[in-house]
Amino acid sequence: MASFESPDFDVLIIGSGFSGIGMAIALKQAKFQTFVILEKAQGVGGTWRDNTYPGCACDVPSRLYSYSFAPNPNWSEVFAPQAEIKAYLEDCAERYDILDHVRFGSEVADATYDDELSLWRVRTSDGDEISARIVVSGQGALHIPKLASIDGIEDFEGEHFHSASWPENFDLKGRKVGVVGTGASAIQVVPSIAPEVSELVVFQRNAPWIQPKPNWKIGKFAAWCFANVPFANTISRTLLYWLLESRLPAFLSNKSSTFGERQAKKQLRRQVKDEALRDKLLPREKFGCKRVLLSSDYYPAIVQDHVTLETDSIVHVDATGIRTDQSYHKLDTIVWCTGFEVTDAAANPLRIVGRDGRVLQDEMQETAKAYLGISVEGFPNFFMLMGPHTGLGHNSMIYMIECQIRHVMEVVRAMHKNGSMSVEVTHAAQESFEREIDRKMIGTVWASGCQSWYSDASGRITTIWPDHTFKYRKRTRRLIDGDYEFEQVKTPEPRMKKL
Fold first, then answer.
1. Do residues 109 and 351 lie in contact, with contact meaning Cβ atoms separated by under 8 Å?
2. 10 Å Cβ neighbour count for 378?
3. Over the stretch 42-71, which tens digit does the pLDDT of each residue have?
4. CA 421, CA 486: separation in Å to the nearest integer?
5. Is 496 a residue whose pLDDT tops 60?
6. HEC sequence for 178-246
7. Which of 303, 300, 332, 327 is nearest to 315 (CA)?
8. 3-class DSSP state for residue 48?
9. Kind and range of the H or E element at 329?
10. Any long-range contacts for 297-301 (C-beta under 8 Å, 24+ apart)?
11. Please, are residues 360 and 167 in contact by the beta-carbon 8 Å criterion?
12. DSSP-assigned letter for residue 69
């Protein structure tokens, strides 16, 4: 049994994006007051605060990409732009009285579990030390930019930056710009900046699958209905959920073409008439193996006279541009749309040290393992939101985040009920879950052999949840006997302050 020491907080949350704010709201609604959010920036919003590049928007319908308990009747478009999503999170933080619990400018450097006292000791980059009974990581997956590893980058004399670090009020008018990458950020950046620049070169390594984006402005009458008609938001959200969920079977099999693939090819044929260019833009990998993108204006941007699609490999960067295998492109601006470090645990500067000195980054480096994507053996009282095996290729991550928050709250309630100061997932539960994930992944399009950020260095798919989201909801709703070990406190001191 552990000794007792009263920590500074019962729960410490890292990050104030959708995960962190949602976790805080759940604690607040449970009358839990002794919690804190440590946020490295000066405002809430997570990835929707940091990514301000031109054209930045969500590729999940707005009514589904929001909390189920906090519908927003005022979305301006079917797919909300970045500024509106950020404003939505700011409004939720204020409306649910979360801001007083946030410490801005507090970047977590490391967190170490004190086995004797069953609590976490958290240190910020400024040297502050805070203790907490429970730590919840709400960092998310898209917060560490993946920087290109190309010879000569340091020699480039023009402006260059990652899409997640877009300079404020940066004027592109008349510039010769290179966009490196053709992922989710690039297909939004390219159409947005093409009208401004004098020349634009898009460096493509692999062509992505791009489906039409059914986006439109929400009219005044529809907005009035969402604001005033009972259940309008709920009905719309439910219909959207099942519409997106119906796409999953296409990803669970890699044997035949799908409606989505045919739809993507039809758009490519319609918008790109030049056969040679169309061939360059036609993906070679199976539909869904990598993230399927949504855009109706990327191909029209690519076919413009002042835009060049470069498919030869980049050899190096020099002071004035980029050289490929076959050509040289003189540029004064380079935008690195190279994504984020999703599966490389070593790239995360936050050091988490659990029981017996076990380091989370080391545990995750070979391959990521976590029970339900939430709990890790050897790391008591520690929970991850948007952890391994919980990403989606077909529906809204906010749905998954709410499932995870509900599960964490169930564990915390069980701790309170049992008078426990420590809880840890069992080895058997974690390994059983990992075997289940690997078994379900067999035969899916994600495991068809392409290299993507869904997989780790060994080729194992560690990012995606390979099943229906409602099944994940069922798995996380209640605790299963034997999946967690609860440790009692040695002395009859007070339990956690309020739950």
1. yes
2. 18
3. 999 999 999 999 999 999 999 999 999 999
4. 8
5. no
6. EEECCCCCHHHHHHHHCCCCCEEEEECCCCCCEECCCCCECCHHHHHHHHHCCCHHHHHHHHHHHHHHC
7. 327
8. helix
9. strand 328-330
10. 297/191, 298/187, 298/190, 298/191, 298/210, 299/210, 299/267, 299/268, 299/271, 299/272, 300/191, 300/271, 301/190, 301/191, 301/194
11. no
12. T
CB 353 within 8 A of CB 346: no
Which has the closest alpha carbon to 222: 62, 68, 82? Answer: 62
Q: Which helix (H) or strand (E) holds 336?
A: strand 333-336
| Residue 447 DSSP class | G
Please state the pTM of the whole predicted model. 0.93
Helix (H), strand (E) at residue 263: helix 259-271
Amino acid sitting at position 84? E
Q: In this structure, are residues 282 and 302 in contact, taking their beta carbons and an 8 Å threshold?
A: no
Contact 137, 14 (CB under 8 A): yes
Question: Which residue reads 């070979």 in tokens?
Answer: 366
Averaged pLDDT, 346-366: 85
Q: Is residue 108 within 8 Å of residue 124, measured between CB atoms? A: yes
Asked if 293 contacts 189 with a C-beta cutoff of 8 angstroms, the reply is no
Rounded distance, CA 254 to CA 251, Å?
7
Measure the CA–CA gap between 47 and 281, rounded to whole angstroms. 29
List of E strands, 447-499: 484-488
Closest CA to 307 of 447, 179, 142: 179
Q: Could you tell me which of 465, 360, 472 has the C-alpha nearest to residue 406?
A: 472
492: confidence class by pLDDT, cuts 50, 70, 90:
very low
Which structure tokens are listed for 30?
A: 């449970």
Summarize pLDDT for 113-151 with one digit per residue, the tens.
999 999 999 999 999 999 999 999 998 766 677 777 888
Q: Cα(100)–Cα(33) distance, rounded to whole angstroms?
A: 11
